Amino acid sequence: RRAMNRSIYILILALSACDVDDDCTRAAQFPAEIYLGVGEKTFSALEDGDDLDLDYGNQGGSHAWVALQTTGIAPGANPVIGEGSAGPIVDLYLSYDGVELGHGSSHLRPFKGDEALAEATGLQLGMGWFEESESSTVDWRAVTLTAELEDQCGTTLIAEALVSVNR
What we know:
Number of strands: 11
Strand content: 35-45%
Number of helices: 2
Radius of gyration: 19 Å
Distance between the termini: 61 Å
Helix content: 10-25%
Order of helices and strands: HEEEEEEEEEHEE
Largest sheet: 11 strands, mixed
């Protein structure tokens, strides 16, 4: 029985590897690009100078809903035994003058869509806690939002926008 379970496990691993290779082959047919946006449920493009609105939680924290749109990456799929693959690793940063003001990440969550066009919405960028004296040195109208993405094929993309944070 152990030999049979081990054989099934090896077969699942082999099928998963095939999915990754297929995903990477399809992704390579499109230019690898990433676009920053905002949105909890839908993608709305974000450009330099745009406002980044914060939502305030019940416990006093705040966050922004970031969204990404991509082409030429393996978006992943909801993994089922022997089928599908994990989504990209995404790290989000909000910074001013080299100081990190907020961070968020989404590791292995599949994007919606395919290699030609995929989206991830509802990515949470949590804001750090600041003393009033620290916060007063930040020009919240000129903060950099950065998204770093790496898919299962090793494709790495970075997007940045200079935004105005509405506090």
